[in-house]
Amino acid sequence: MKKTIFPVGAGIFICILLMAGMWAYYRVSTRQIDLRAIGSQENYDRHYVLIADDSGTSLWTKVYESARQEAQNTGVYLELLDSGAMSDYSAEDYLRISIASKVDGIIMQPGGSPQVRELISEAAQNGIPVVTALEDDPESERISFVGINSYQMGTVYAEEILKLLPEGESEVLILRNANARDTGTNLVLSQIASQVREQAGPGKTVEVSPYDIDISENFDSDEAIRDIFVNRGKIPDVLACLDEVLAECAYQAVVDYNQVGNVDVIGYYTSDTILDAIQRGTIPATVTFSTEEIGRYSVDALNEYHSLGHVSNYFNVGLQVVNRENAGAFMQQEETQEH
After folding, report:
1. Which CATH architecture group holds 150-268?
2. Alpha-carbon span 37 to 120, nearest angstrom
3. Tens of pLDDT along 194-220?
């Protein structure tokens, strides 16, 4: 009996050593990126992750590409983790994985849920800085926010809405993501409502209301916007969208229900679908911003924090209105930046 104990124990010990060696090799090897495009390997100093709400959208695709380029230029590896509708993992799951993996920094759109806020706090306690992008959660322990000034965004939307209001009574619906719980979205809505009501002018009475839609599934978004045209009884004069997916769904609904010319859609961001609709004259305008700045500033914020131990609380990204007059020039500018 004693003779069999020793070989078994030795075998287990050898297996443990092999597994430990393999783990050590993995930890070292994952500190290198195989850059096949140039046929070489490049060492990097830090590992960041970008937790995207849905990397399938053109918005997050461009944000990631800009951030990846800035990261590569500064010796950082940036990994994309997609927590969108088609992913098996939520943003909370990816935060837990990132914390357990001891990454050097996290970029994400927080959404404002208590679970995400707690995990951002846990990341901070583990020495992992978190930068929020597009949406903010100022109550969390994030080190910086990269995004758009809410007051400015509300003002820009209000100015575009005012151009479209007919005489007499009119209704404006503000379409927003029901899952976006950040205070910034509420400030945008408040600024739109107050400015439109104050500046509508004599002879115009405007009702401005939020319309929350769950965009976790595209089908749900389509159905919710369909209800605006089928079941509400009154069709609004203007649909102002605060989300890329909702903007495309609203535009498609206007076309499907033959309401072009009756309902004006103000888009969000400049997807190919929205730009094409603007050039055709189907929708009047969209409010957009620089995805290049969002990606670059997010990586810069993490780099600055690692270098100095502190960073600015807020990085402001500028806004731009794209309409039929400047859509062509905007597309040319975008193509130039991509090349």
Report:
1. 3-Layer(aba) Sandwich (3.40)
2. 35
3. 999 999 989 899 999 999 998 766 557
Q: In whole angstroms, how far apart are CA 273 and each of 246, 247, 268?
A: 12, 9, 11
Q: Is 86 exposed, middle or buried (0-12, 13-18, 19+ CB in 10 A)?
A: exposed
CA triplet 208, 171, 111: central angle to 5 degrees?
A: 40
CA 113, 116, 119 angle in degrees (round to 5)? 150
**Distances in whole angstroms, Cα of residue 20 to Cα of each of 23, 190, 275:** 5, 57, 54
Question: Which tokens is 64 given?
Answer: 């990631």
- CA 209 vs. chain centroid, Å, equals 24
- Write out pLDDT tens, residues 270-312: 999 999 999 999 999 999 999 999 999 999 999 999 999 999 9
Rg (CA), the chain: 24
Q: Are strands 144-147 and 314-316 parallel, antiparallel or unpaired?
A: parallel
Q: Is domain 32-147+291-317 classified as CATH 3.40.50.2300?
A: yes
pLDDT at 153 over 90: yes
Question: What element of type H or E holds 106?
Answer: strand 105-108
- φ, ψ of residue 57 in degrees (nearest 5): -75, 150
What is the CA angle 325-328-330, rounded to 5?
Answer: 95
Euclidean distance between CA atoms 339 and 333, whole angstroms: 10
For tokens 């605060």, the residue is 242
SS3 316: strand
Q: Which residue spans of the chain are classified as CATH 3.40.50.2300?
A: 32-147+291-317, 150-268
DSSP bridge partners of 235: none
Spatial distance between the Cα atoms of 252 and 236, rounded to a whole number of angstroms: 15
Q: CB of 239 within 8 A of CB of 265?
A: yes
Phi and psi torsions of 303, nearest 5°: -60, -45
- Residue 159 exposed, middle or buried by CB count within 10 Å (0-12, 13-18, 19+): middle
**pTM value > 0.90:** no
